[in-house]
Amino acid sequence: MILDNRGLEPPQPMMRTLAKLENLEAGQTLIIINDRRPMFLFEQLDELGFLYLTEQQEDGSYRVTISRKAG
Fold it and tell me: The DUF2249 domain covers which part of the protein (predicted)?
């Protein structure tokens, strides 16, 4: 599942991402694309027990791959 958050003002990208993550099951992945690095989201992901990988894209946006820890 891919969620494109580009063009949205904070806190919309984080709110949309957290809402999608509520339904993410173990083994599933959510990819988000943001205009900027989602620093505050990382804290939430750590607290909620998600794994994530962040990659800056050539256009300056950030692609974050998020998955739920198994078990």
Answer: 3-68
| Inter-residue contact 61 to 34 (CB < 8 Å) | yes
Q: What CATH number should be reported for the domain holding residue 12? A: 3.30.110.40
Establish whether the linkage from the previous residue to 13 is cis, with ω within 30° of 0.
Answer: no
| Residues in Cβ contact with 10 at an 8 Å cutoff, skipping those fewer than 6 apart | none
Instruction: For residue 28, give its domain range.
Output: 2-68
As beta bridge partners, residue 67 has 29, 51
- Count of domains forming the chain: 1
pLDDT digits (tens, 9 = 90+) for 31-43: 999 999 999 999 9
Q: Which two tokens stand for residue 61?
A: 């946006």
Which amino acid is located at 15 in the chain?
Answer: M
